[in-house]
Design brief:
With about 240 residues, the protein is of the alpha/beta class. The protein has 9 helices and 5 strands. It is about 45% helix and about 10% strand.
Length: about 240
């Protein structure tokens, strides 16, 4: 058996492993570092600003375990059709090889139906489950509105925004968007409402995203992110 000292990198990995074993959150349950995750959004304002509020809290929770965060947000300004192509190019070039999970956040808006539908089908019909989708039909503001109320009408994003302004002073560029939504509204209720809406379409046999309106799968992304937070953080 060799008595040769372990390399620094090996010692560092061991130290981190030991630290992860002993690190506990306020409830006494062991923490777990999230996988390296990239959230790629079609928009560059509303979606990144909302999600940043949540992601920052997750990364801050693990600041004593890792120097850099494990979850990142990238706003592209690209449309639905080009969003997946863009991600594939980044992965194939090796630039994003570190990410174990990539979420696509995009809206139906006024883009052609095929572009909207094929983004989901192309992403989910792969053997590699690295890429997941969190779309909204018609727009991300639907997800925001569900923090406050049920919504079943096919009236579009203008109606979402009009109703949002009854509960808050809405702006696409509010940097405190997540804080406002999670205090004035309820993330827990938004998840419940969105899941129920989506599952009702599935129950009726409506499986094509462009035909599922209004609906949003953003709740799936939020549910996954919630698993990295202290239990009960998004219970309100």
């Amino acid at each position: 058996m060799s008595l040769k000292p372990k390399k620094y990198s090996e010692r560092k990995k061991k130290d981190l492993a030991e630290k992860m074993k002993t690190q506990k959150n306020i409830t006494g349950t062991k923490t777990k570092l999230p996988p390296y995750t990239l959230i790629v959004s079609e928009g560059v304002k509303t979606e990144p600003l909302y999600l940043k509020g949540l992601v920052d809290k997750i990364n801050a929770q693990f600041k004593d375990l890792t120097r850099n965060g494990h979850i990142y947000i990238y706003g592209t300004g690209r449309n639905t059709k080009n969003l997946l192509y863009f991600v594939d190019r980044k992965i194939n070039s090796g630039e994003w090889e570190r990410y174990e999970r990539i979420w696509l956040v995009y809206d139906k808006d006024d883009f052609p139906l095929d572009n909207f539908d094929n983004t989901q089908f192309s992403a989910e019909n792969r053997k590699n489950t690295q890429i997941k989708v969190a779309w909204s039909n018609e727009s991300f503001e639907l997800w925001l509105l569900l923090h406050f109320q049920d919504y079943l009408s096919n009236n579009g994003r203008k109606d979402y925004i009009e109703k949002l302004n009854r509960y808050m002073e809405y702006s696409k560029t509010r940097e405190d968007l997540f804080e406002v939504m999670s205090t004035l509204g309820s993330v827990k209720e938004a998840k419940r409402r969105a899941k129920r809406m989506y599952e009702e379409f599935v129950y009726k046999g409506i499986l094509i995203p462009s035909q599922m309106v209004p609906a949003t799968r953003v709740y799936e992304l939020v549910e996954e992110l919630e698993t990295y937070l202290q239990p009960g953080y998004l219970s309100v």
